[in-house]
Amino acid sequence: MRIVSLLLMSCLVALSFVMYEIKYDAAEMENSVAALRLKVLKERDAIAILRAEWSHLNRPERIERLARKHLGLAPVQARQMVTMDQLAASRRKAPESPLASNDGRALRHPVKAIH
To answer: How far is Cα 63 from Cα 69, in angstroms, rounded to an integer?
Structure first.
């Protein structure tokens, strides 16, 4: 009977050490989960801020102002519009494009540099 009691006591002590270890492992995991949740919340906030900045930077009036300032672009005017018939007529009159032939000749049309 003493051997059985001694064996049960030693199992009880071993089990208490195992339970102690499991308890603190679980607490450590809970802390890491809480830290990850906080990190996710911070990343969501950062994404929301970046989306707001993107919306601010893509405002049409801002892009129009920058296009006028840096690229020299302006809105399309009515005199620049052509009909499909006018476009077809201009293509019939125009000589073959240097891009259409692949004989290695350089383009004859100058390209304006953007400053």
So the answer is: 10
Full-prediction pTM beyond 0.70?
no
98 sits in the region (left: phi over 0; alpha: psi -120 to 50; else beta) called alpha
Which pLDDT tens digit goes with each residue over 77-114? Answer: 888 888 888 888 888 876 665 555 555 454 454 445 45
Whether pLDDT at 57 is above 60: yes
The type of residue at 47 is I
Mean of per-residue pLDDT scores for the chain: 85
Distance CA(7)–CA(22), nearest Å, equals 22
| SS3 track for 55-98 | HHHCCHHHHHHHHHHHHCCCCCCHHHCCCHHHHHHHHHHCCCCC
Q: Report how far residue 8's alpha carbon sits from residue 101's, in angstroms, rounded to the nearest whole number.
A: 95
Closest to 100 measured CA to CA, from 111, 90, 108: 108
Closest by CA to 54, choosing from 62, 66, 64, is 62
